[in-house]
Amino acid sequence: QYKFRDLTIEELKNVSMAYPNFTFSMNTYTFKDGSQKDLLNFSGTVPVKYGNSYNIPIRLWILDSHPFAPPICFLKPTANMGIAVGKHVDARGRIYLPYLQNWSHPKSTLIGLIKEMIAKFEEELPLYSLSSSDAARQSELLSYIAKITEGETDMKSRSKTGGRNEGCSNKITVVGAGDLGIACVLAVAAKDVADKVVLLDLSEGAAKGGTMDLEIFAVPNVEISKDFSASADSKVVVLTVNSLGNAQTYLDVIQGNVDLFREIIPAVSHYSQNAVLLVASHPVEVMTFVSWKLSSFPKSRVIGVGANLDSERFQYMLTNLLKAEVLAKDGWVVGEQGEDKVPSWTSCNVVANQTEAMAARDSREKVANRAMEILKGKGQRSWSVGLSVADLADSILKDKRKVHSVSTLAKGYCNINSEVFLSLPCILGTSGVIEMVRLEEDPLVHEKLQSSAGSIHDLQQQLKL
Q1: Residue 198: how many CB atoms within 10 A of its CB?
Q2: pLDDT tens digits for range 50-105
Q3: Does domain 5-129 have CATH number 3.10.110.10?
Q4: What's the rounded Cα separation, in Å, for the pair 442 and 348?
Q5: Alpha-carbon gap, residue 70 to 137, rounded angstroms
């Protein structure tokens, strides 16, 4: 089944000569989309000097288009090893290297790849030794990682993690301890939404700034941790992290966020397999799509904060500033966050004749345009987004069946054929999106949504997932 069998065999012979400890086999690998294929793979240890000498266990899967496609690479930690998530390794143990991204036959070879792997691991050791208690706590995760590296994972058949937090019926984890993450924690605590809130601080070094203040003033039912296992059995996981790298372009900024999520999503989705993922990272439409793909959760349980804040403000302005309370209950801001968002309606009052209908529509549009003009002057500060996140979490955890404008999978809506997330009115409950509420037929709104879907899809196509 290997298209270039002779070239592949020649490469594997070279690896065997250079690293005689490697063992070779043919096993079934499961890809992210659930498809499976029997692939050659080899595993063994590579020598790494990091102060002392270490033997780092790895496993490489050889695709059937080798050597014109790079292998899929994983660490293969033993029970007493922990994965040090970093620049080149994610929480599942998958290895990412410039050599893999720039793979090009005949310049790129397996031997060259292993040499770069050793060099990068000598800069940043990918594994660390666990204490006996840590090893016991992480044995379940290591077992899961082993299944992934052996291609045996079936995301749809994962059983619920039990036991550790049965006393917390409503637990929320907020990932990211920047201003937005802390704002979310404080808003959730202020609204008394959850029994327990865990703030996952993924920054390096000791707690400082806002997280230190949270510890000093001991906000009730709030735990700060750097360990993903602290998030176990959360009902809602809020993603607030954003890359702060030295990106040169907007695409680089988004790719930086994707790289962060590649490390985070597999870990939080493992520990909270029945959670609703609530994405507040930027750009929210793209990062909600990324979270959906990386988690393999059903689309109903992966949502973005979308235009919830804008919609709440829009309805408030219609009611309190423009005295159009009748319109407010059916008015929503939909589409893409930013300049391309658009007002819309979920119902239309029936009037006696066409002339009255046109007059009513014109009047409504004038009021909506005025409200949108006022909205432009309202920024989305961390504390305001935090309040919006608490509002959404409240509807989810308390199964309120309330309608919110949130980022949801829009494929199939108003002739959108691509897998993109857009903000649309949705009924939220404990399982996430229960039902999408249909918008009134409006060609201008549909055109705007289709335009946003096209630009978002084009952007997603340029990302490396």
Answers
A1: 25
A2: 878 889 999 999 998 899 889 999 999 887 788 887 778 887 788 988 899 888 88
A3: yes
A4: 11
A5: 34
Task: Name the nearest CA neighbour of 92 among 110, 109, 72.
Answer: 72
Q: CATH 3.10.110.10 occupies which residues in the chain?
A: 5-129
Q: Return mean pLDDT, the chain.
A: 82
Residues 384 and 309 sit within 8 Å (Cβ to Cβ): yes
Q: Where in the chain is the domain with CATH 3.90.110.10?
A: 307-462
Phi first, then psi, for residue 58 (nearest 5°) are -135, 165
- Model confidence pLDDT, tens digit, residues 5-42: 889 999 999 999 999 999 999 988 887 667 788 899 99
Two tokens, residue 324: 């159009």
What is the architecture of the domain spanning 171-303?
Answer: 3-Layer(aba) Sandwich (3.40)
Dihedral over alpha carbons 284, 288, 294, 300 (to 10 degrees): 170
Give the per-residue pLDDT at 160: 35
CATH code 1.20.1250.20 for 307-462:
no
- Which position has the token pair 């990412």? 96
The three-state DSSP-derived secondary structure of the chain is CCCCHHHHHHHHHHHHHHCCCCEEEEEEEECCCCCEEEEEEEEEEEEEEECEEEEEEEEEEECCCCCCCCCEEEECCCCCEEECCCCCECCCCEECCHHHHCCCCCCCCHHHHHHHHHHHHHHCCCEEECCHHHHHHHHHHHHHHHHHHCCCCCHHHCCCCCCCCCCCCCEEEEECCCHHHHHHHHHHHHCCCCCEEEEECCCCCCCCCHHHHHHHCCCCCEEEECCHHHHCCCCEEEECCCCCCCCCCHHHHHHHHHHHHHHHHHHHHHHCCCCEEEECCCCHHHHHHHHHHHHCCCHHHEEECCCHHHHHHHHHHHHHHCCCHHHHCCEEEEECCCCCCEEEECCCCCCCCHHHHHHHHHHHHHHHHHHHHHHHCCCCCHHHHHHHHHHHHHHHHCCCCEEEEEEEECCCCCCCCCCCEEEEEEEEECCEEEEECCCCCCHHHHHHHHHHHHHHHHHHHCCCC
Query: Residues 66, 28: contact at Cβ < 8 Å?
Result: no
The region of weakest confidence among 305-314, 333-342, 367-376, 456-465 is 367-376
Closest to 182 (Cα-Cα) out of 205, 209, 220, 204: 209
Tokens of residue 93, six digits: 């143990």
Enter the tokens of residue 114: 């292993």
The whole-number average pLDDT for the span 127-147 is 55
State the pLDDT at residue 356: 46
Least confident of 181-190, 195-204, 316-325: 316-325
